[in-house]
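Same chain as my last thread, 233 residues:
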Amino acid sequence: GLLVYYHGGGWVIGDLNTHDAICRSLALRMNHAVLSIDYRMGPEHKHPAAVEDALCSLRWAYENADVLGINPNRIAVGGDSAGGNLAAIVAQQRPVPLVFQLLIYPVTDLTQSHASHVENAAGPMLTAEGMSWFIGHYMANGADKTDPLASPHFAPDALLHGTPPALIITAEHDPLRDEGEAYGRRLIANGVTTSIVRYNGMFHGFFSMHALLDDADTAHTMAATLTAKAFNA
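reply #2:
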């Protein structure tokens, strides 16, 4: 199988290097391949450039399965934060068959209207103000933040129905906690097999700290186990 992974960083920062350790960890634990994507970012490239690149790279992987040495019918998408946003959108559009979506504290609603944006406004790691900064650099002035190609939470039921099984990991002290969990509930309501797992005591970005935090290490094992299970089904 192949996990196509989109890195986090608010569609503005982050690259192949910042998320290399995550990708290597997941590949080793799954015993399957990971393809990390270096998509265009803001403020130079506004939405939907990142989404276009996310879709194109997935199509490329599918069409070049022979070169990559993978089964084209065993592809999953995943990502953390802004990358989880891209993975969720790609899973809705699904230009190729997908077997799983791994969403690590994903951004699903750019309107920042969920209660955790107030409760966890001060962070740690990610603040509500910081999130606004990222969105401002990603979205053009006056752009519709409820466009499903920006906020997958606002997709109609028809787009959610038939999306691949999901694991959504959230963190208690994360401004993005509630929107990730709300998106999971929408997937469940549309018949998608979905696990929503909240790590209490954890914060935005904890998934990057698997060498330091037991909970992050556990989260990696869970993510790898469920993704590999989908590949091996």
